[in-house]
Amino acid sequence: MTRVRLSVAQRREELLRAAIGQIEARGVAAVRIADVASALGVSNALVLYHFSTKEKLVAAAFAYAAEDDLAHLRKLLGRRTSALRRLRAAVRWYAPTGQAKGWRLWIEGWASALREPALREVARDLDRQWKAAITEVVAEGVAAGEFRCPDPAGTALRLTALLDGLAVQMTAYEGAVSRAHAQEWVDEALARELGLEREALTATRV
Question: Which residues are CB-neighbours of 16 under 8 A, at least 6 positions away?
Fold first, then answer.
């Protein structure tokens, strides 16, 4: 069957999505250019034409995944509703108990970032933008009198640290933490950080 001719941008996106799938399945260290090419039924040369090395392909794949996650975060936080509703929606989505996908990918990325400067910068930039977005909506809620929080930036750091840690436990060690317990802890932490009773969260429909 004749393959549809793609534009350069479409081809790069196809390769990046395939790379993400292979990284999730095989891990950063084990994945090869040949694996990505085989997944799409194209030649190694075509992959190397767009990304001259495996390292550049991997870094670009993580940058692509990061932008995809950030786009969804902006969508959630850009809704015309209260700061509390927006914040809870973002935390629920980001949590390993929610609908966010790709935790295995990011755990792989964090580990590899210790040795790969380009990948480390991608992960660091994503982390900064997530924390900045959460900080901003918390500050908006404080200004609107919805809740109390003396340190929005600290709240953003503590919440994301809790979510990242739970994600590692639930992804790497199956059964270590139940979804119900994780969700309970996340809601308790969010309520505590905002100076609210937990019932105020469960009564908030998003």
Answer: 57, 60, 61, 64
Q: Give the C-alpha separation, 120 to 136, whole Å.
A: 24
> Is the CB of residue 96 less than 8 Å from the CB of residue 166?
yes
Q: How many residues are given for the chain?
A: 206
Rounded Cα distance between 92 and 48, Å, is: 39
**Where are the domains positioned within the chain?**
59-202
Against a cut of 0.85, is the pTM above it? no
State which fold the 59-202 domain adopts: Tetracycline Repressor; domain 2 (1.10.357)
21-75 pLDDT, tens digit per residue, is: 999 888 888 899 999 999 999 999 999 999 999 989 999 999 998 888 889 889 9
> DSSP letter at 3?
P
**Residue 180: both structure tokens together:** 């119900």
Q: Where are the alpha helices (DSSP H) in the chain?
A: 8-26, 33-40, 44-50, 54-77, 83-94, 103-113, 117-143, 152-172, 179-194, 198-202
